[in-house]
Structure formats: structure tokens, C-alpha cells
Amino acid sequence: MAHILIVDPAECSCFLVKSILLGKRYGVSISTDLREARLKLETGLFDALFVDFSGSLEDEAALVRDANDILPGMPVLALYREEAAPDLAGCDIFAAIPKPVRVSAVSDSTRRALAHVLAPSRPRRKRAVSLPVEVSAGQVGLACRATDLSSNGLLIEAEPRDFAALSRFHEFFEDPGHLSITATVSLGPDSFAVPASVAFAERTPDSKVKQIGLAFGELPGEARSRFEAVLAAVA
Question: Is-contact 95 104, C-beta < 8 A?
Fold first, then answer.
């Protein structure tokens, strides 16, 4: 599944754009805080970025330039009011979409952006996976499943997807002492223990933790080689 980050500090269009993208069966995350958005981008777990230029245009343009540096080639789609078009000098923008938001414009631009970044000829920095992962903090461990892998992080969720496992997952990551963990990732017969930190949490409408984005610390050489091999594998 493709994952898309929407950044909208003024909360002008993010929920409408999210509903459009969810209807197309994309994974969607919203950030209304620019610092949080940078942390999410640094995990490498997103395929495209929407930015609504309705707040501080200078700060939002700086975020786009950061995104261009962190994830070169990741499509950035800019939403803007025609009467207040942002200065995008120095920004690599895949598409600029005038508001008011139209379903067709968002859908078509997203489809083109993902076709560009997910083309078979392009190297992958992120890939959908299904890998057993055990996260641990001190003496406390929890079995999870990774659904996406990048060279910089993992997206994980509860395993299995029943009420008890979902509750354990929520309780583990609600503990403020579990922001820095060890993630043991199983790849075939081998397991790799890597240091990681919680970069972001995706929640259900009733505020339960449903997914966690992990940012890797310093990866052991063998683990990095194996993860890079997974990313380079033919889909």
C-alpha cells in the first residue's frame, strides 16, 4: 500500500484530502505540526507528500526543501489559494493544485505522482513487507508485524489483529518509557536486533494506537545489507 503524508498546519484541507485518499485505498497520515512532519519524513515511510500552503508560507516552503533533501525524488504536491500563491523558488514540486480542493484534481495528481515514484525503473527506499518483529524495552517484549520497511525505519502494527493484541500494542506504546526500543526483525531464518525510536503513532478515531512508525538508530552492517537487499528486490 502506498502511504501519503499530508502537512497542513492551518488545518484547512487535510481532512478532506485524507478522505479522498482513503477512498482510493492509500495509507494516509496527517501532520499539523512541522516538527512532527519532519520526524515522519525522516523515517522514509512515505511515498508522497501533500503540503497545504495556508499558514506560514515561508515555513511550509522550508519543509518542502527539507523533504527534497531527506527524500530526493519523492513527489511533493502543493495545495494553494490562487489569490495567495506561494513562492516555491528552490522547491522541487511535482504538482501544484489550486484550491478549493477538487476530488478529481487530488485523485489524478496522486495517481500520477505514485506512478512516477513507484515505476519499476526507480530504486526503492520503501517497500511493503510482512515481517515478524519483536519490540522490547527493558524486560518487556511485544510481538508485532512490520507492514512497511525503509532504509531508515519500519511501520509496525499489532499481531495478531484481535482485541487482546490490539490492546497490548496500545498499552505498550502509550508507556512513555517505551519511546526508545530494540526491534528484532525476522528475515527468513535470520533475526536482526536494531535500535529504534518511536517517530510517530497513527491512532483510531477513539485515540487507540493502531500503527507505529519507528526510526532506526545506527544499524549493524549485516542488518543494513539485508534490509537494502529487501528494498532492492524485484516486486
Answer: no
Three-state DSSP state, 7: strand
Distance of CA 19 to the CA centre of its chain: 17
Q: What share of the chain is helix, strand, coil (3-state, %, to 5)?
A: 35, 35, 30
- Helix and strand element counts for the chain (H, E): 6, 11
pLDDT in tens, 16-74: 999 999 999 999 999 999 999 999 999 999 999 999 998 777 899 999 999 999 999 99
CA distances from 217 to 48, 82, 153, 197 (A): 23, 42, 9, 7
Angular region, 216: left φ>0, alpha ψ -120 to 50, beta rest: beta
For residue 5, which of 118, 38, 24, 87 has the smallest C-alpha distance? 38
CA–CA dist 110, 94 (Å, integer):
10
Phi/psi class of residue 219: alpha, beta or left (left: φ > 0; alpha: ψ in -120 to 50)? beta
Q: Cα(235)–Cα(232) distance, rounded to whole angstroms?
A: 9
Peptide bond into 75 cis (omega under 30): no
Enumerate residues 6+ apart whose C-beta is below 8 A from 230: 127, 129, 149, 187
